[in-house]
Specification:
It is a single chain. Helix 7 (82-91) packs antiparallel against helix 8, helix 8 packs parallel to helix 10 and helix 9 runs antiparallel to helix 10. By secondary structure, the protein is mainly α. It is globular, with a radius of gyration of 16 Å. It folds into 2 domains: 1-78, Leucine-rich Repeat Variant (Alpha Horseshoe); 80-162, no CATH class. The protein has helices at residues 2-10, 14-27, 31-39, 42-48, 55-68, 72-78, 82-91, 97-109, 123-132, 135-149, 155-160. The protein starts with a helix and ends with a helix. It is found in: Mitochondrion outer membrane. Its main location: mitochondrion. It is a single-pass membrane protein. This is ARM10 protein.
């Protein structure tokens, strides 16, 4: 894991970055690895990949963060990327793998109400995706909206959103 994280930092080759991110994402399926990746500063390194200009690299970084977000301590670190993830979802091509990867991460990050306030500005986008997206996109958006709607503090924002 340490070598993969160092490899992510050391290379600019998108194909190598994708493969390293896929391997880290798969490794994050095991809870012990989630802690190791966090302790190796892997969350910030993977999070840094969200600003990459290559969509496939962003997508693989989102997938890795999604798997890593199953851990409360990891969520505390990943939450700093929520606004950027929301922007990626909004700017990604409609129904793209990149958009779905961002929505999956937002779903996990919205299970508790701790970070709902960081998603308020993306509520109109969610309704747009619900209207325009394919069934896969709609299902993922609904998961985010259901999580947000479980928080009474979000009621006003959900009802006032421009659709």
């Amino acid at each position: 894991l340490q070598k993969l994280i160092h490899l992510l930092q050391a290379t600019d080759d998108p194909l190598i970055q994708e493969q390293a991110l896929i391997t880290l994402s798969n490794s994050a399926a095991f809870s012990v690895n989630q802690d190791i990746i966090r302790n190796l500063d892997g969350l910030s390194i993977i999070g840094g990949m969200l600003s990459d200009c290559i969509p496939k690299v962003k997508e693989k970084a989102l997938n890795a963060l999604n798997n890593l977000s199953m851990n409360i301590k990891n969520q505390e670190e990943i939450q700093v990327y929520i606004t950027q993830v929301c922007r990626n979802v909004e700017s990604a091509p409609l129904n793209s793998d990149l958009q779905l990867a961002g929505l999956r991460l937002l779903t996990n990050m919205s299970v508790t109400s701790d970070y709902h306030h960081k998603m308020i500005n993306s509520i109109p986008c969610c309704f747009h995706l619900l209207s325009e997206g394919t069934e896969r996109t709609q299902i993922q958006v609904l998961k985010v909206l259901v999580n947000l709607s479980a928080n009474p503090a979000m009621t006003r924002h959900l009802l006032r959103a421009q659709v």
